């Protein structure tokens, strides 16, 4: 779900780049959808015309990353879809980000074909909030996206290194450790330079970014923000709305405050979230 590395044992059986989870999400023969997601018979309503595609973060499976937001949005009346992507060495979302974007493209096409919708809304966490920008900017996806909502997204990479387990060893050789996506998400990487060479946004989609000041993975946290006109981009810091909210990077998709902001953004007829929107602080 994140960008940096940790060694889980002295034998270094798995190195995870910046995930706060205890272990990586391993790919398997049977993929499990989060509750409420991937009902391919769902038809969008007039109130919620855009299917929602949930894009998980580095090392995360869709069922773990979206176990609470998916049913929340489904109960609100949305057609919700989610995918796994970027598997290398049995771990999701570790492939080069550009390759993962090439997997998002056909999934969006599949959702559009099933629902009859011309566009979708994308909601992503960490890498999943940034990777769709490559899809939109370099793979022709902009015309198929109504809005991108990024939750703690790695839009400009991260400058930090976190070793959340005592005695763990950080290793900057992310590609050698089997996580090309981690290397791509370092600030100043060749991938980041290419991604942002065309600007933070492209014409068409709206962008909402949701960040926490307590993010210890994508740092500095304000590097997640996107530059763009107010009619197209809204950057929201959770603590500006709910100062006591102590949510950190890993759990942002499960934060009830984040749920409210996401639903508000998706409910907009046009443009991003209203920067004046005030969620209930819980």
What does this molecule look like?
- The protein has helices at 62-65, 69-75, 97-115, 127-138, 180-184, 190-195, 238-241, 256-266, and strands spanning 52-55, 80-82, 120-125, 145-151, 206-211, 233-237.
- The model is unreliable at 1-25 and 162-170 (pLDDT under 50).
- With 282 residues, it is an alpha/beta fold.
- Strand 3 (120-125), helix 4 and strand 4 form a beta-alpha-beta unit.
Short note summarizing the structure:
This protein is 24% helix and 11% strand.
Query: Number of helical segments?
Result: 8
Our Rg estimate from Cα atoms comes to 17 Å
Summarize model confidence as the mean pLDDT.
Answer: 87
Shape field: globular
Major beta-sheet overview: 6 strands, parallel
- Computed structural class: alpha/beta
Secondary structure elements and pairings:
Elements: E1 52-55, H1 62-65, H2 69-75, E2 80-82, H3 97-115, E3 120-125, H4 127-138, E4 145-151, H5 180-184, H6 190-195, E5 206-211, E6 233-237, H7 238-241, H8 256-266
Parallel strand pairs: 1-2, 1-3, 3-4, 4-5, 5-6
Helix pairs in contact: 3-4
Short descriptors:
disordered N terminus; 6-stranded parallel beta sheet; globular; 11% strand; 8 helices
